[in-house]
Design brief:
Helices cover 80% and strands 0% of the residues. It has 455 residues and is mainly alpha-helical.
Amino acid sequence: MVEHPTRTRWFIVALIFCMGVLMFIDRVNISIAAKYIMPEYGLTDIQMGWIFSAFVLGYALLQIPGGWLGDRFGPRIILAGAIFWWSAFTAATALAGDLFLVSLIGIVGSFAVVRILIGIGEAAGPPNYNRMVANWIAPNERALAMGIATSGSAFGAALTPPLIVWIMVNLGWRAAFYLAGAAGILLALLCYWLTTDEPAEHAWVNQAELQRIAAGRATTTTTPRITQPIPWRALLVDRKDLWFLTAAYFVLGYILYIYFSWFYLYLVNVRKFSVLSGGWYSTAPFLAGAITAPIGGWLSDHLSQRFGKRIGRCGLGICGLLLTYGLIWAGASTSDPYLAILLLALGSAAVFLTTAAFWASTMDLASTYAGTVSGFMNMGGNLGGAISPTLTPYIAQQYGWETALFVAAALAIVGAGFWLGVHPERAIELQENTSPIVQQTEAAASAVAREGADR
């Protein structure tokens, strides 16, 4: 009797989806609560922008260490610890205006410190999602898996405005942070109990699924633990692909953080929607992204198998960013507020269409160091995100919101150009060790290949 493969790998991806939902609730909630925090503490738009950027700064700077920790010790324990950390400090946000730090560094400084600490915890998230996917998913399904993971982030961002507005109206803005923190601690425990670093370690995985996961992998592949030094020369000097990929992701981060940080307030303050209607309409870019992210992942895998990774990854990235340019420019230009929401939401959808191609490209270039390499790329994206929340209101204050959005649209063209320097079909040559677990999965794949040849 033929053994049907279990589908535990997709359960792992579903857990990553849930982590993405929580991460973006904890990331975006303060942009909604800002409507209440700013008048309570007398903060200006610029000061609130500093608080927004504080999170992104901590998040960006710890990406590489967070990814390296997953490569070194395995993503399971790092993810569980990271979720617990950022959830605890999410709850602490409710107290940030009353902490002892206020007497030392002021209201803005106190909120900024708490947000930096949340960012430090969340920094380990995406690189270790990537590490987990590299370990658990066959190469021809990785973009789809990361598309689903990214969809979780978009869905979390979409869920946040109406959820947080409802909680704030009924329970107060502080309750939103307490509840999110409690949910995160529960998810941290589930991550620790229900995941493993490698599929061969999981009790729910049968041999047929191990063979399915190993199919299509190269003779050297991911390992659950990395003990040797990171080969930075090979990654950053001998080849420039990772620099170009990171530069393109810098642009993506700049654009997305306008949506994360300012879209709700843009609708309320500039387009003159009410607090409640603005909360609902501000979900549109993220709902659109939640749909297009897995579609982009599937499309990237499909095009890569049919036409090669240069088309499947780079071609999709270029087309998506060029589409982003046109839609954001048109959305900023229109005087109709409802048409503006539609066009700007589609602009966000075009950005999310490309995200899986970015993350899959890091695994294509160096799957053994998937955590560290994706952490480097995501650091670049979030440095762009750290600049965006502060620079955008400054440009808007000086030249108008239309110009601030035009700048984001023009940057999308620059990001598309950076994709031309990426060659995911040519993996970076690295000295890689192969673990006994990986040897087991590779042996399973070889057995499948031999059986096919015998037939």
